[in-house]
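ugh ok so i messed up the first submission bc i forgot one of the chains. this is the corrected input, ALL of the components this time, i swear. 596 residues overall. if the numbers dont match what u have on ur side tell me asap before i send this to the collaborators (the ones from the other lab, u know who)
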Amino acid sequence: MCGIFGVMDKGRQMMDGSGIREALSMMNERGSGEGAGYVAYGIYPDYRDCYALHILFDNACESKAVVDATLEQWGTIEHDEAIPTYDQPNLRVNSTPWRYFFKPDPSLAAPGSESPEKDVIANLVMQINASAKGAKIVSSGKNVGVFKASGWPEDVANYYRIEDYEGYIWLAHNRYATSNPELWDRPDPFNLHDWSVVENGKITSYGTNRHYVESFGYTCSMSTDSEVIAYMLDLLVRRHGLDINLAIRAFAPPYWEDIDQMPEAEQKLNRALRFAYGSATMNGPFTVLAANPEMMVGFTDRGKLRPMVVGECGDRLYIASEEVAIRAMEPKVESITRPAAGEPVIGRVAQ
Amino acid sequence: MAKQVVIDAKGMHYTPLNQQIRKAIEDGADEIVINNVLGQRFIGDGLRGNATIRVNGVAGGDLAMFMSGPTVIVHGNAEHAPGNTMDSGKVVIHGSAGDAVAHSMRGGKVFVRGDIGYRGGIHMKQYEAQRPVLVVGGSAQTFLGEYMAGGLLIVLDLNGKMKAHEIGSGIHGGEIIIRGDVDDANLASGAKKVPLTEEDRRRIAPVLREFAADFGLEPEPLVNADYTRIVPASARPFAGKYTWE
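and heres the new structure output, hopefully the right one now
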């Protein structure tokens, strides 16, 4: 199960988190109370030039010193503070959320990199998350932040007072835990600098996909689908330079029988994609919602084993597991559609 | 005199809502009007009798599951699986519905004026006099009639947007009737097209007239339209797939 919800404003109008909280809680039946999370783009305008690192510490005293030292090795900490939280009766706190506003030193990236700052950030995230020193970086992008914990969506939203944040793209996730411990870092969203991902489903190709991204230097340390998907998006879109449409087609390609029916040029392209990215193909039931600072995208598995509903209203694009989540936030929604499997929905922010 | 009960479901969880519906039926209501419905699940589930329930808003998942007798009329859309394992009675949806409409339905009727999602009519069944009917006014999506074991499934495709393929995947009973022609490439293996005979047309005419009456459509163009009838190619489509005899 799981419930996912995403909204973007193409005109970059800000939305505070209260409507998102409302929308996600409409789908409580899709979760099990063991995890929920939110991510928003545009929340840190005062530090828009810094990478905002959201970190969950098991123990803020011991783990923080190690993280501080690592960060200072890789760049400059402009500011850091505890993320404000508000105790909730039904939420057992076992992590301390912290945020750093950090400027990486691009000269420390491997030579020849086209995006040295992001390479440094990616290395940092892999290093700290894999070292198991009681610290997990849960988001690492500019002007973006992930807020997540083990609990019901409202409790997690209230714990972080999600209504105090304003963003132009929001993704939210209500977790139905099936195979992972109730750690605070495990619920979606997962983020790696630009990209954030929430998923409803279970990719049965997890092992293949994980080995594939790990062969490019990523380290998967949270045993979760969305972590792999976030890294695959970064790999295909940023490092390989694929257009988002092609990247999604690599993840959820048409069946061979369908490719056989295409015009020749299309056939060639699709065959090439399937050969080049066979190990990035995702199997199993899933609906994936992903965002970066410029866009929000949604797509489902080829057999359409999970729901995806799309709503539009003015500049707002909504994608959710259920129509009612959209209507809860936008009662006057102008159109509701249910795209076919393999038809990605891509909304772009006006430039 | 007919007894009507009105319930305002605004902001209400589905548990108290369904308790109120049951209470109203126990107290002898003939008609229950539920206003401001927004995704409450399980409305009408397991209900017996012959009351009419009017849902104003978007009905949540598993509407009328296991229902036996009542009529549910939705003025709006429905989420996944309305008519799930329904036994008898009728569901009329004026909007569209999500995936797995009429999932495992055993009897009664589900009428949807708009479109339905994937896997409509999945594993509908029939037994003796129990013969479920699903009629869709708009289009249906892929895996229509998947593992269908019985019953009648009609898609009218009134907007001409039908793009379903893998129709009748694993069908081993019942029939799927689609207005217009269906390309062979869109049939799943195990399903086959047969002509709609005049006898078939006489058989489905009352269902089409009832559908047209419920939604204020002209009945005769529907009754006289061209249809493709899809039936199982065999009663055991996977006989050789998992076992060897």
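quick check: Residues 113 and 145 of chain B are 18 Å apart (CA to CA). that seems consistent at least. Chain B touches chain A at residues 38-39, 41, 58, 60-61, 77, 79-80, 96, 98-99, 115, 117-119, 141-143, 163, 185 (CB under 8 Å).
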